[in-house]
Specification:
two-stranded parallel ribbon; 154 residues; globular
Length: 154
């Protein structure tokens, strides 16, 4: 059975997660009540330095990024565009493949849990974000994880 089409909300038991990642940098994941500009603007302005170039898909929620002080480039998935060479140098620098890769890993990581309560979803998101940002696997993950857990927050 397929779920209902459309964007999820916390009220419909399909809360959206905003994902931001710098290429080669840290990932930021945030559970949101909805996907409205007034919801995502404070998160974007808190995490992304003004004047930065932001790559997104064609979803209209991102239309105000230039007004918020960012350069904005898009790929149009609806027309089959997934990467584009914007400056003619042979490198497809306009894409959202970095965050798409994070979503792929996140879904694979959640799959064995077979459904998660909204109450605990922020904990799963935070744990995944921390482990992704540490960028180590297996036994080498233990020391950074313990350091993260045992360091008092300011």
């Amino acid at each position: 059975m397929k779920g209902r089409r459309g964007r999820g909300t916390a009220a419909t038991d399909k809360p959206p997660v905003l994902g931001i990642i710098a290429r080669g940098g840290q990932v930021f994941l945030q559970l949101c009540d909805n996907v409205q500009q007034r919801t995502i603007k404070p998160l974007i302005t808190q995490v992304i330095k003004g004047g930065s170039c932001i790559n997104t898909d064609e979803y209209s929620i991102y239309a105000r990024l230039p007004a918020w002080g960012y350069t904005h480039v898009t790929v149009n998935h609806g027309r089959g565009e997934f990467a584009r060479d914007a400056d003619g140098d042979g490198v497809n620098e306009v894409h959202v493949n970095t965050i798409e890769g994070v979503w792929s890993l996140f879904r694979s990581w959640l799959r064995p849990h077979r459904g998660i309560s909204q109450r605990f979803l922020p904990l799963y998101i935070g744990f995944f974000q921390a482990m992704h940002n540490i960028r180590q696997r297996g036994h080498s993950l233990l020391n950074p994880m313990l350091s993260l857990l045992l360091t008092p927050t300011p």
